[in-house]
Amino acid sequence: MNLFAIGFSEKTNHPVLYNILNHFKVKNCYVFYIKPDEKIRPPHFTKIYFYNLLKFQLKGFSLPRKTLDKPLDKKILEDLLYCESIVLKLMERLVFIYPELSNYDDRKMFYLKHVKYWNNMLDEKKIDIAIFGIIPHTVPTFIIYHLCKLKNIPTLTLFQTHINDTAMFFDDFEDSNVRLKNTYNQLFNYSHLLKPPLI
Fold first, then answer.
1. Distance from chain centroid for Cα 91
2. Range 144-150 average pLDDT
3. Contact predicate 41/11, CB 8 Å
4. How far does the chain reach from its first CA to its final CA, in angstroms?
5. pLDDT of 71 strictly over 70
6. Residue 46, exposed/middle/buried by CB under 10 A (0-12, 13-18, 19+)?
7. What is the mean pLDDT of residues 65-88?
8. Domain residue limits, the chain
9. Long-range Cβ contacts of 119-122 (<8 Å, 24+ apart)
10. pLDDT tens column, 10-40
């Protein structure tokens, strides 16, 4: 199994990733990190590759030559139109670092650069599943999430709750609230709780 793990920089999340790597005997794991000391130590049978998240947040991150040579499929770009609209908005948070991203054309080129990189990376590394330790909310992570959905690569997203040491799992975080409400209402029907159903 080849696993993409994003959002496990916090050491409190490391045990979750360790358990996944051990349970599924993951062969290759591609992990984002923020600080070098937050890198995890994998089990002996897992080869781990690290990607600095801050590097990929930067407008000037470089691409390998073979990635540049491989063109993007027009259909992929069309299928990612929703993703594109959100990512171009997300880039507003980077304008204070890169004022030129206030320009639409620069944003679009930055977006296309990311799509090209991660699309080719997911194909070349033959990623089987992507696990997000936090809801995708940055330029690269949001694009990776939607590319996985487009390629039918299973995704799992952890959502931290206000309860100590408790997280919920979703395979589609954008639809999670709807399903959570439906589940709550089903339980209400069977448990005769005093709380009213969610409308």
1. 16
2. 95
3. no
4. 41
5. yes
6. buried
7. 87
8. 2-191
9. 119/72, 119/76, 119/147, 120/66, 120/67, 120/70, 121/30, 121/67, 122/4, 122/147, 122/148, 122/151, 122/153
10. 777 788 888 889 998 999 999 887 776 667 7
Six-digit token string for 38: 């937050």
d(CA 3, CA 31): 9
Counting every residue written for the chain, the total comes to 199
- Quick check: pTM over 0.90? no
Residues 53, 140: contact at Cβ < 8 Å?
Answer: yes
pLDDT at 38: 65
Cα–Cα–Cα angle for 27, 31, 33, nearest 5°? 155
**Residue 99, CB-side half-sphere exposure with 13 Å CA sphere:** 0
Starting at the edge strand found earlier in the chain, the sheet holding 47-52 runs 47-52, 28-33, 2-6, 129-132, 155-160, 167-170
